[in-house]
Request: fold
Amino acid sequence: MPDRCGDTLGISGNEDRVSSSDAIWAEIVPTGGSIPVISFLFNLIWLIFAGIWIALAELFFGLLLCITIIGIPFGLQHFKLMRLAIYPFGYDLR
Reply:
């Protein structure tokens, strides 16, 4: 008889966990599996309609969080997400 609720569902909770240090040092890398022309077109459409506004919001919150010492790691993550907001198609956060 399992002693935890997660075990009854077949979920132990520690497979495929990403540690916080792995998430902090993750990088934006090309996926390599997409067609460059289509990715460029989708990125252009994305940038015009939503990407620029999301990137500006990420820049604002990144600068706001970098004011304090505690917020610097979170601010750096916002800068990384700003890059991903500008060209999301054909890139992955690893």
